[in-house]
Specification:
The protein is α/β, with parallel strands linked by helices and 395 residues long. It has two domains: 258 residues, 3-Layer(aba) Sandwich (Aspartate Aminotransferase, domain 2); 129 residues, Alpha-Beta Complex (Aspartate Aminotransferase, domain 1), CATH 3.90.1150.10. The chain has twelve helices and 14 strands. The protein has a four-stranded mixed sheet. The protein has a three-stranded parallel sheet with strand order 3-2-4, covered by helices on one side. Helix 3 crosses helix 7 and helix 9 packs parallel to helix 12. The longest helix has 22 residues. The radius of gyration is 21 Å and the shape is globular. The model has no long low-confidence stretch (mean pLDDT 97). The structure holds pyridoxal-5'-phosphate. The site of pyridoxal-5'-phosphate has 15 residues, from helix 3 and helix 4.
Length: 395
């Protein structure tokens, strides 16, 4: 049986009419840039995630860029992030002229490790008289950017404790984590995007909430910062043709907002279906624990509904490359997220990192393999994936 890694046509069958009618309404209005549809989506997104303010952007990458620009992060600044994520997280730091600083991941969740972050920050020595922490290159640390990778929230309590001690704000990369929940020590459950000073999400078509092209959103706590983001996404304009700052064209299209508005009410159901699929894998692959490590579910014991939203179902596999070839030959979709840790990317050679500097990220890059998990996946397809993995390890 052939099993695709992702088949968006199955989702489209479900949303065809809702999308068509919302898109039609935009055509009728002929309001393609910003306007009511974008404002309606921003409001609906806040209602779903619990974020105070949402500002629609042209992509997740542009959403991150807008945050960095609105914070005035640039040359002379540095931001800490994870070495094991999609490229944009660090690429945007480079683009604004800031230094990307990498701190290794936890081996279980593959998230930025709060203890290693503490070690790194403590190792920077006493803070300067103005309270700043500087990197070895002399740049001023401005923020920490954890990534809620694959759909599980980072340990926000641990990260907040460390960042607060060093006076650094958290900016969340929630690109892969719409709806993902975390229960803080103080007992409250909250969704990705509400923990940091600001955050961004991606609506790349393959995401749990996908647009019909590129789209994203920034969210934040402060109304003042939201106003800055609105101006940044529109060339730094606060009043027509008056530019207080230099921004960009990072606007969310009304047509994309229409698609997102049609799909948003189904995200909760889709996230539940992804979790159900993960449970089927857990049952089917549990006996291979000597060969395969299944994704960690750190917040499941807390009883949260969206303890994981499985944007990707990523296992760690012994002889990963051989397994990948075996699955490909059997017609089973799979992918490696991500084969090269960011510090070892050619474009970051100037940072001077060597293999061995980020052992956990490097191990994850060698062992990780994503299996199909999309909501419309059928139980017999999951059984076929599991059978192919069994046949590889047990013959
Ligand atoms: C973790 C992470 N950060 C940032 C992005 C960038 O989002 P976009 O592709 O919408 O620009 C993505 C998208 O794939 C992502 O997965």
């Amino acid at each position: 049986m052939r099993v695709p890694l992702l088949d968006l046509t199955r989702q489209h069958e479900r949303v065809r009419e809702a999308v068509a009618s919302r898109v039609q309404a935009v055509f009728e209005s002929q309001q393609f840039i910003l306007g009511q549809t974008v404002a309606d989506f921003e409001k609906a997104f806040c209602d779903y995630t619990g974020c105070a303010h949402a500002v629609g952007m042209s992509s997740g990458t542009d959403a991150q860029l807008a945050i960095l620009m609105a914070m005035g992060i640039g040359p002379g600044d540095a931001v800490v992030t994870t070495p094991y994520t999609f490229f944009a997280t660090a690429g945007c730091l480079h683009r604004v002229g800031a230094e990307p600083v990498f701190v290794d991941i936890r081996p279980d969740t593959l998230h930025l490790d709060a203890e290693k972050l503490r070690e790194y920050l403590t190792g920077r020595g006493p803070r300067a008289a103005d309270g700043t922490v500087r990197t070895a290159r002399g740049n001023r640390l401005r923020a920490v950017m954890p990534v809620h990778l694959f759909g599980a929230c980072c340990d926000m309590d641990a990260l907040e404790e460390v960042t607060a001690a060093f006076g650094l704000p958290i900016i969340e990369d929630a690109a892969q984590a719409i709806g993902s929940e975390f229960a803080g020590k103080n007992g409250g459950t909250a969704r990705a995007g509400t923990f940091g000073q600001s955050a961004w999400f991606s609506f790349f078509p393959t995401k749990n909430l996908g647009a019909a092209g590129d789209a994203g959103v920034t969210v934040c706590r402060s109304g003042e910062f939201a106003a800055k983001l609105r101006s940044t996404r529109n060339h730094g304009m606060t009043q027509q043709y008056h530019h207080d700052t230099v921004g960009g064209n990072f606007r969310l299209d009304a047509l994309q907002a229409a698609v997102l508005l049609a799909k948003l009410p189904l995200v909760e159901e889709w996230n539940a279906a992804r979790r159900h699929n993960a449970d089927l894998y857990r049952a089917a692959l549990g006996d291979l624990s000597d060969r395969v490590t299944l994704p960690a579910e750190p917040w499941r014991p807390a009883g949260l509904v969206n303890h994981h939203t499985y944007h990707q179902y990523v296992i760690r596999a012994e002889r990963r490359d051989e397994l990948q070839r075996h699955l490909a030959a059997a017609g089973i979709g799979q992918a490696i997220y991500y084969p090269v840790p960011l510090p070892l990317q050619e474009c970051f050679a100037y940072l001077g990192h060597q293999p061995g500097d980020f052992p956990e990220a490097e191990r994850a890059a060698r062992e990780s393999l994503a299996l199909p998990v999309f909501p419309e996946l059928r139980a017999e397809e999951i059984a076929a994936v599991a059978a192919a993995i069994h046949s590889f390890y047990r013959g």
